[in-house]
């Protein structure tokens, strides 16, 4: 019989948040693939569990190489448990490659639901939660980071990001530049841990606060773009949106059509704005 791949959520801070099934799966799995075997050892000790199965490392550096090995274990009938350092595997953590490879071989994939920094931060942010999108980590390079932010400048859903503490001030400053300093946001730090903090305010205000230095695990939640009527989107903004799409690889014709639909204006209005900007630039 073919085995089963189990993705298990682990606590993002407070060990008491560990789901009851996690201990059962840790004790009974044939193979445990862990992002950090030392953190796994601390987790099992805290839960009072002694794994019977083989423990292997599965992290960004060896994910590609180890995936075929784990798939063969699954095809051979093993129950393989995948855990990452915190939260759900595959969500900005190792796991996607293994899930995709397992599905391709018709292996059953299931999960032990657990804590999620994305949903926890979203719920605590005080921002709209009916529609949201998770953007993960932004690029480290300033130019690439600005480009990625410009791609979602008009996104009306609430945005959720992960960020390293030493880059938080630069990221918030870039967000204030692209989204506007008054756009509401929440910085969620050390969720479920002793020094948990949720700082809410405008992006400009939060950027100034972060410039003093911030520590811990960070999740940033940003309010979506306000809904604008056609008359509120000026020529400069239309040209900027076309440029962003062209830089992302779209042909000008398609970019103009997409921006016109997004802004609720005729394509001719966007086309004229682009031509006028080109003539003004010489």
Automatic annotation (TrEMBL):
Keywords: Cytoplasm, Methyltransferase, rRNA processing, S-adenosyl-L-methionine, Transferase. Its EC number is 2.1.1.198. Gene3D superfamilies: Cobalt-precorrin-4 Transmethylase, Domain 1 (3.40.1010.10), Methyltransferase, Cobalt-precorrin-4 Transmethylase, Domain 2 (3.30.950.10). It catalyses: cytidine(1402) in 16S rRNA + S-adenosyl-L-methionine = 2'-O-methylcytidine(1402) in 16S rRNA + S-adenosyl-L-homocysteine + H(+). The keyword Metal-binding does not apply. Residues 4-207 form the Tetrapyrrole methylase domain. SUPFAM superfamilies: Tetrapyrrole methylase (SSF53790). It is an enzyme of class 2 (transferase). Pfam families: TP_methylase (PF00590). InterPro entries: 4pyrrol_Mease, 4pyrrol_Methylase_sf, 4pyrrole_Mease_sub1, 4pyrrole_Mease_sub2, rRNA_ssu_MeTfrase_I. It is found in: Cytoplasm. The keyword Metal-binding does not apply. Its main location: cytoplasm. It comes from the Bacteria. GO terms for biological process: methylation. GO terms for molecular function: methyltransferase activity. Catalyzes the 2'-O-methylation of the ribose of cytidine 1402 (C1402) in 16S rRNA. Belongs to the methyltransferase superfamily. RsmI family. This is Ribosomal RNA small subunit methyltransferase I.
């Amino acid at each position: 019989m073919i085995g089963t791949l189990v993705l298990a959520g682990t606590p993002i801070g407070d060990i008491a948040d560990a789901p009851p099934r996690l201990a059962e799966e840790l004790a009974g799995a044939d193979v445990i693939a862990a992002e950090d075997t030392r953190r796994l050892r601390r987790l099992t000790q805290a839960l009072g569990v002694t794994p019977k199965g083989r423990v292997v490392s599965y992290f960004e550096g060896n994910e590609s190489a180890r995936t075929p090995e784990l798939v063969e274990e699954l095809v051979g009938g093993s129950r393989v448990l995948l855990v990452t350092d915190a939260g759900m595997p595959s969500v900005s953590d190792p796991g996607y490659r293994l899930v995709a490879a397992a599905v391709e071989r018709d292996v059953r994939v299931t999960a032990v639901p657990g804590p999620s920094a994305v949903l926890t931060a979203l719920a605590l942010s005080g921002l709209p939660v009916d529609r949201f999108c998770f953007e993960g980590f932004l690029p480290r390079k300033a130019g690439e980071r600005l480009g990625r932010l410009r791609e979602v400048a008009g996104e009306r859903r609430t945005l959720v990001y992960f960020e390293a503490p030493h880059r938080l001030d630069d990221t918030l400053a870039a967000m204030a530049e692209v989204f506007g300093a008054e756009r509401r946001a929440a910085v969620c730090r050390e969720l479920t841990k002793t020094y948990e903090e949720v700082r809410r305010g405008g992006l400009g205000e939060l950027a100034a606060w972060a410039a003093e230095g911030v520590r811990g695990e960070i999740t940033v939640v940003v309010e979506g773009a306000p809904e604008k009527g056609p008359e509120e989107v000026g020529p400069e903004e239309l040209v900027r949106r076309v440029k962003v799409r062209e830089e992302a690889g779209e042909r000008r014709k398609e970019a103009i059509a997409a921006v016109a639909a997004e802004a609720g204006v005729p394509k001719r209005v966007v086309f004229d704005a682009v031509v006028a900007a080109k003539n003004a630039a010489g």
